[in-house]
Amino acid sequence: MCTSIPCIAHDCDIELSDFSAFQKELMSTLNIQVMLVDACTYRGADLLDPVRCFEIIQIFAEKIKAKNSTCAGSMLIKYWVVPLLYPYWYSSLFQQRQLPWAFTEFVFDLPEKWAWNRTLTLNISPKNTSTLLQEKYDFESLFFMVFRDLNSIFEVISQVAKVPKKLLWENTALRILQFYDMILRKQQLICGQAIQQQRQFLMQLSAKHFELTHNPFGDLIEHWNPDIKTYCRQKCCFYFQLPEAQYEYCKSCPLQNRVKTKDKYLCTNI
Fold first, then answer.
1. Given this model, what pLDDT does residue 81 score?
2. Which residue positions in the chain have pLDDT lower than 70?
3. pLDDT of residue 228
4. Which of 50, 105, 143, 177 lies at a 20 to 30 A Cα distance from 83?
5. pLDDT at residue 92 in the model
6. Separation between Cα atoms, residue 83 and residue 30, nearest integer Å
7. Cα–Cα distance between 176 and 131 in angstroms, integer?
8. How do residues 138-151 score in pLDDT, each as one tens digit?
């Protein structure tokens, strides 16, 4: 099922074929910084190697003060989905030229003073900016490229961090749905129809595309709660374990009404 999903031409005064203008557009609309570096320690390709993947998760656990690798693995995806995917989803909506999808070149190094920074860093020489941007992918092609890579990465993370693959996909689907909601609040008249069609496309995909028994987009959309204005999750993401959460469940957490079970999940060893 590959229907044609339209994209909307974005009215912008800057020439988006210029990389610096592209950076400014993403910063102003998504608060996401795009950087290019010649060298790095960890790249997307390292997430496919169990040893390197676990190192990335351990470093991230230290940054967020996670007490176990399951929490850190879940939070790793819940965090990185935003700077990694939002620029591509944004481009798919507004018919802009976009960065090439090259997951192996995404940099997973974190700065010393990192604080949930929204930064997409690519292991690509800054000298190549003049030829970096390319014609946008149609949405179906983008989806299949991105989610093919995510399936491979989630397979490794689920093994080394003991995170259910269903949880990793739910984190991803939730962030994408939140992206649509954010854009609708800002520019509903411009892209409302395109977003609705993209959401419908994702919701109707077979679960086999996620290597699951259920489509995570469909599950979340079907469990939208208008009273609290959020998508009710099927799996706890373990955010409540972080000190900054003060060990309180998110309002959409399935454990919200199970306070007595909280201690069961407070693991102390990475």
1. 96
2. 1-17, 95-96, 128, 188, 257-270
3. 84
4. 50
5. 87
6. 9
7. 28
8. 889 999 999 999 99
pLDDT of residue 255: 87
The residue whose two tokens read 């959409």 is 252
Q: Give the max Cα distance, the chain.
A: 57
Cβ atoms of 37 and 107 closer than 8 Å:
yes
pTM for the predicted model, two decimal places = 0.87
Q: What is the C-alpha separation between 61 and 98, in angstroms, rounded?
A: 32
DSSP string, the chain: ------------SS-TTSHHHHHHHHHHHH--EEEE-S--S-BGGGGGSHHHHHHHHHHHHHHHT-SSHHHHHHHHHHHHHHHHHHHHHHHHHHT--B----GGGBB----TT-SS--EEEESS-GGGGGGT-BPPPPHHHHHHHHHHHHHHHHHHHHHHS---HHHHHHHHHHHHHHHHHHHHHHHHHHHHHHHHHHHHHHHTS-GGGGTSSS-HHHHHHHTEETTTTEEPPSS--SGGGSGGGTT---TT-TTTT-GGGGGGG-----
Q: Which of 142, 169, 140 is nearest to 154 (CA)?
A: 169
Q: Name which of 206, 93, 209 is nearest 146 in CA terms.
A: 209
